[in-house]
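Table S2 (text version). Query chain:
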Amino acid sequence: MSRFWSPVVQTLTPYIPGEQPQMQRLVKLNTNESPYGPSPKALAAIASQNTADLRLYPDPEGIALKNEIAKLHGLDPKQIFLGNGSDEVLAHVFAGLLKHQDPILFPDITYSFYPVYCKLFGIEYKTIPLGSNFEIEVSTYTSPNGGIIFPNPNAPTGRAIARQEIETLVLKNRDSVIVIDEAYVDYGTESCIPLLRGSNCPENLLVVHTLSKSRALAGLRVGFAAGHPTLIEGLERVKNSFNSYPLGRLAQAGAIAAIQDQAHLEETSQKVIQTRERLNAQLAELGFETLPSAANFIFTRHPHHAGAKLCQLLRERGIIVRHFKSPRIEEFLRITIGTDEQTHELVAALKEILATA
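Corresponding structure-token output:
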């Protein structure tokens, strides 16, 4: 601890991102990255921008990218906000839309960046317990609040709820913003973006997306939010008080091409879904108990083997998965859905571990 730190820095417990190990032979199933790579059209678009024009600043508003996102989702470009990955978008959301007198609400088991943002921006919060099967129960979000936020599907559980339930939550909380973090929506969940179309767009619903998962551009750092124009205006005010140029020329070009290539998105997402279901069946044969997942990962445990030990034994075999040392979920492993070959290696390693344990 340095005497030069400001008081808020001294109180922070930073978010810990998924490990990026530098092992020679590695089956990396810990950070929910796509196993199939970006759209070839996105890669070509990025390469096309690698010119002397990089000396110039990018479009600070990202108008062309906003237009493509709006066109895809049937929205007005004024309903789109851009950021350097969805984490930056969420940071602006916390600072600009969720800091009020009442605490914000989010699940007790969810994306661990949420309490970090609350600490950073001085926001009070209250966690709402997941149900007995680790499901989000919107009926429990009844206390006065300065906003509600959760991922759908939730992370790290992978469980999703129906759009109709979220619409009910929005209608019952008209005086606070409801933020739905849809990082994994393309793997089998109803998006809430259709609720934002037309003149009946609710003033208090914001939907956040990333191009890091299903569009396989985690290394490019592009995220966006969709919502009522007044919410977007607030976010733009925060963004332009922080960084007017969050997305570079390469990022904007690659994102535009990725958004346009819907066929690549659908093809690779379906591959992940099919592999996920096969893996679920194989793990069930080994005695694992796996939560229903609508994401590109699963959350699973074995009733007779500790999660931390399984994680370590897999690591010794060059297979990296995620383990959380948190109440209620310390026996679970979060396993990213990789290629069929990676899944085969995972299952083979687990068979070996269980046979010798």
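Notes on Table S2: The domain at 17-37+263-356 is CATH 3.90.1150.10 (Aspartate Aminotransferase, domain 1). The first strand starts at residue 27 and ends at 28.
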